[in-house]
Specification:
Elements: E1 5-8, H1 12-23, E2 32-35, H2 40-51, E3 55-56, E4 67-70, H3 77-84, E5 93-96, H4 103-109, E6 116-120, E7 130-135, H5 142-153, E8 156-161, H6 166-174, H7 176-193, H8 198-219, H9 223-230, H10 236-245, H11 248-269
């Protein structure tokens, strides 16, 4: 059977992509091979891969795959690249989900000829609801792009953006889930503050978030339009909205800007 995907590093995100590809019937388990990280975590990953029907591989066997996915920690990349060796231009497509290491750096480390595409999913890949940025300026073929979009589509939605905007993507969608969870924490605590029991405050906040997100998805309406439907002049929503409007936009803009700038710093330091 043709080896379609070789995943170097089989942590949580690598596993999510592998499982998503199988669940979406994009790939069969036997078409995926895995090179786990070293150490005790690697042993657990090997067992997991075998139990799922995936193959184990060595760095020497990667050239038989159509796609090599780099899912290792950025600080481990140089060592991994040395183990992989040179990848020819007509060899496997190299897809990286590593943060902070550019396509040019990856290509250079792999001999200067490999076809490389960076992608950036987020943590919702584990439930196949990720949004993944794909570098639209990657020097790869149309067939390569289709393969990458098929793989990313198995774990959620995808968008093409210039690689130069990946630090902004990190802030908006990579870090985004944490920002939403932080808002939800405040929402739940505020519910308790106004008198709700803790379990009720949690249920009301979370189910309201789920329902609002689903309504946004299904209706196709803009957030502004849906917000207006709930906000009557002089009503309860308008009273609360006045406090949000006093500082929310600036706070969110500063939040994303800080995250973007830190991503840029880490990329430069790397």
């Amino acid at each position: 059977m043709t080896m379609e995907l070789a995943i170097v590093g089989f942590g949580s995100l690598g596993r999510s992509i592998a499982h998503g590809a199988v669940q979406a019937k994009f790939l069969l388990p036997a078409q995926i091979c895995v090179i786990p990280e070293p150490g005790a975590a690697g042993e657990e990953s090997r067992t997991h891969a075998r139990d799922c029907g995936m193959q184990l591989a060595t760095h020497d066997g990667l050239r038989d795959a159509k796609v090599i996915m780099l899912s290792v920690k950025p600080q481990s990349f140089r060592e991994v690249a040395a183990a992989i060796g040179e990848i020819p231009h007509d060899g496997p497509l190299v897809v990286s989900i590593m943060a902070g290491i550019s396509s040019a750096q990856i290509q250079t480390a792999l001999g200067g000829k490999a076809r490389v595409c960076r992608v950036m999913p987020n943590m919702a890949a584990s439930v196949r609801r990720a949004v993944t940025a794909i570098a639209l300026d990657a020097q790869i073929t149309d067939a390569d792009f289709k393969r990458v979009e098929g793989l990313c589509g198995s774990i959620g939605a995808s968008v093409r953006v210039p690689e130069s905007l990946f630090d902004a993507v990190t802030a908006a969608s990579g870090s985004g889930p944490a920002f939403l969870y932080r808002f939800l924490e405040s929402w739940e605590r505020a519910g308790e503050h106004i008198g709700l029991p803790k379990d009720v405050a949690q249920t009301l906040a979370r189910e309201t978030l789920f329902g609002a997100a689903e309504l946004l998805r299904v209706s196709g309406a803009s957030p502004r339009t849906l917000r207006a439907k709930v906000t009557s002049k002089g009503g309860t929503t308008a009273a609360g909205m006045a406090h949000l409007d006093a500082g929310l936009d600036v706070m969110v803009e500063q939040t994303l800007t800080s995250a973007r700038d830190r991503s840029t710093e880490l990329s430069r330091d790397g």
